[in-house]
Amino acid sequence: xxxxxxxxxxxxxxxGIRMILTSADDIDVVAEAxxxxxxxxxxxxxxxxxxxxxxxxxxMDGLTALAEMGRAxxxxxxxxxxxxxERDNVLRALGHGSAGFLxxxxxxxxxxxxxxxxxxxxxYLSPAATRHVVDTLASPAATVRGEEARRRLAGLTxxxxxxxxxxxxxxxxxxxxxxxxxxxxxxxxxxxxxxTKLDCDNRVQAALLxxxxxxxxxxx
Length: 220
Hints:
The protein is α/β, with parallel strands linked by helices. 54% of the residues lie in helices and 14% in strands. It contains 11 helices and 6 strands. It has helices at 11-21, 36-45, 62-72, 87-95, 108-119, 127-136, 142-153, 158-168, 173-180, 184-198, 203-212; strands at residues 2-7, 27-33, 50-54, 77-82, 100-103, 124-125. The chain has a 6-stranded parallel beta sheet, with helices on both faces. Strand 3 (50-54), helix 3 (62-72) and strand 4 form a beta-alpha-beta unit. It is globular and about 45 Å long. Keywords: DNA-binding, Phosphoprotein, Transcription, Transcription regulation. One of its GO terms (biological process) is regulation of DNA-templated transcription.
């Protein structure tokens, strides 16, 4: 079973997330938290695999809790629940090792898929969230980020760039494999190489790097 902690200051939101997740036979919501501080304490003392953290919470916000959890309970994979209100929030979450982002209006099946992906050690960024991140990160600094991103991508092979482009679109390993006519296992191997070459901690960072560099999937 995948053991999940849900942290949100609104009881109805927590109840809704619990209902969705427990409809899956491999997920169990083992704890709930009303604020970031409580979430960190629960993660420290409870067997939790994945934590869903809202950004806007009292006492301690979700981003601060993410950083604290990385030190207090590094085994826990964290998904941030957000509406991507501010560019700095996205960058801070990535810097603290978030396993991905989930929009609060995501479909129930997407929430379940994100939790499973995080528990399996993968990062999750839905296509909708990917597009939102790109829009959010649009700024005068984009030119500088683009130049740096293209420099980092220079050492990738053609195939690695094709795989990375699909990560930038938010595709899973299985979907990327279908697009490129490769097995899911082969795509996973490519992703591992890409993360190593780009010095990225997770797929989300690699996806954003691809978008910064303007990398687009090849036609067909």
